[in-house]
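Something for you to look into today, if you have time. Could you write out one complete protein record for me, on any chain you like? Leave the record below and I will have a look.
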Amino acid sequence: MADPRAAYIDVARAHLHAADPVGAGRVLMEADRIAPAEIRQRPAGRDILAQVARDSAAPTTLAHLAVTIGVG
């Protein structure tokens, strides 16, 4: 069975593909709260965080997280 925490990245990616960086940002911030390793250490998590953080509509807290972990 797949780790359900990994689904956060897929959900954030879906928001990004739907042109909803704010929704993607919310999902990533929740993922960082519940399962920080998914965002901070997994390459897929770091990649989607970097993509969302580059969007001008991304939440400020997400941009700060990206800079903090070195992907922004």
Remarks:
- The chain has a mean pLDDT of 89.
- The chain has five helices and no strands.
- Residues 53 and 60 are 8 Å apart (CA to CA).
